[in-house]
Amino acid sequence: MYAFTIFTIIYGIFPAIAYKFFKVNIRSIAPFVAVVCTASLYEFFGTFVLKLNSDYWILCYKILAFSAIHYFYFRILEGKYVKVFLLFISTFLLLFFYTMYLWGKIDFFNLNAYFNCLQTIIVLTFSVLWFIKIFTNLELESLTRSPEFYFIAGLILYYSGTIFLFLLGGTIFKFDKANFQSFWMLNVILNLTLRSLLIIGIWKGRTKLMRHFG
What is the pLDDT of residue 213? Predict the structure, then answer.
């Protein structure tokens, strides 16, 4: 289990490697790929090797992930739904300042739960809007040929799949510490799934460019 967790963390740098190796130019997902790579490097060297306190990093990661995911959806939705974006940005800022106000009194699980609930709502909302856009305009012959489809699938699976884990994580840890790692493996598996779908999407972006210029 420990080895699998380490592998998943290190695996987080591979989407960035794939992005560089395949020389794709999918600007919408580039910031999120960079965030995933940075998170993997910090978690491996900062958390596992140097044993650094991760509280500040978790908050920093939430800010980076929120910004990167917002940028991704803003690009693929072509700058539409500005009011919806501003609503979520305002909500995130309120949550951020609320977290800072309670800093030192809020634990890891509650911190993750608050931000992940909001991020899940954001991902599901903008994903639905993207699917509506695609099916309304009939822009794609097949969803499986679209890099964005794999990026969105990964985000949906990860955030919707872990929302209840983060909401109930504190309770599980408090009353069933012995089996907590087994429950936490869901987060690790879905992280692996998200990173794999990022790589597949990047690969699809490569073949898409080859067809375009070939």
Answer: 36
